């Protein structure tokens, strides 16, 4: 049972590490914006991501309701950072105790998440994510709002796919890096 708890923490670690690697890469975000969003979203997005990391004020293009939601997003990102650290500690402990099996099982959990993502429509997953993490309901906006215009569902779909692919890659790299000599 503990192996699976360690493996789950490893999967969470890989997902959150991928999230932070991608969110902190302005080139990746700008490329996703080029594919999904209007050109005018580039400047405010760079400032918004700086806001998430405490480096800039929130862009003035967003209205009061959008600002409220974006504050909640920032708080969730900060909480996620602490979960990342905790998941790393648990994962490292699990790998020391059980070896590669923790990484293998973590990879299988991530693979299961990928398969789930292929079966369940993204909009449903996105909806439930918001119900869980933003229960106060300040995440529903009209289609013509700045937030929805700048960040349509395709923006989040592409980000989600990239996070999952990166997490799978991280877990595979670590699995093979932990391979004992002579195997």
Strands, count: 0
Query: Unreliable runs, pLDDT <50, ≥5 residues?
Result: none
Helix-strand pattern: HHHHHHHH
Number of helices: 8
Mean pLDDT: 94
Structural class based on helices, strands and sheet pairing:
mainly alpha
Helical content (DSSP H or I, runs of 4+): over 70%
**Strand proportion:** under 5%
Q: Report the major sheet.
A: none
- What is the rounded distance between the termini? 27 Å
Rg (CA only): 18 Å
**Envelope shape:** elongated
Number of domains: 1
Could you describe the 3D structure shown?
- The structure is a single chain.
- The chain is mostly helical.
- The chain has one domain (2-177).
- It has 8 helices and no strands.
- Helix 1 packs across helix 4 (64-98) and helix 4 runs antiparallel to helix 5.
- The protein starts with a helix and ends in a 6-residue tail after the last helix.
How would the blueprint of this fold be written?
Elements: H1 2-23, H2 26-36, H3 42-52, H4 64-98, H5 100-119, H6 122-133, H7 146-150, H8 153-177
Short recap of the structure:
By secondary structure, this protein is mainly alpha-helical. It is built from eight helices and no strands.
Features:
mainly alpha, 183 residues
């Amino acid at each position: 049972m503990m192996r699976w708890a360690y493996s789950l923490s490893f999967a969470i670690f890989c997902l959150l590490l991928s999230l932070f690697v991608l969110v902190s890469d302005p080139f990746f975000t700008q490329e996703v914006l080029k594919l999904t969003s209007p050109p005018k979203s580039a400047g405010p997005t760079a400032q918004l991501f700086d806001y998430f990391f405490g480096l800039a004020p929130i862009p003035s293009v967003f209205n009061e309701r959008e600002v409220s939601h974006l504050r909640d997003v920032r708080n969730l990102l900060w909480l996620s950072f602490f979960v990342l650290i905790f998941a790393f500690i648990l994962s490292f402990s699990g790998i020391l105790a059980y070896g590669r099996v923790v990484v293998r099982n973590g990879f299988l959990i991530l693979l299961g998440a990928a398969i789930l993502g292929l079966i369940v429509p993204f909009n449903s997953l996105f909806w439930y994510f918001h119900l869980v993490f933003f229960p106060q309901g300040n995440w529903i906006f009209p289609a013509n709002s700045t937030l929805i215009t700048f960040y349509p569902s395709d923006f989040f779909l592409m980000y989600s796919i990239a996070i999952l692919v990166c997490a799978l890659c991280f877990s595979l790299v670590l699995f093979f890096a932990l391979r004992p000599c002579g195997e």
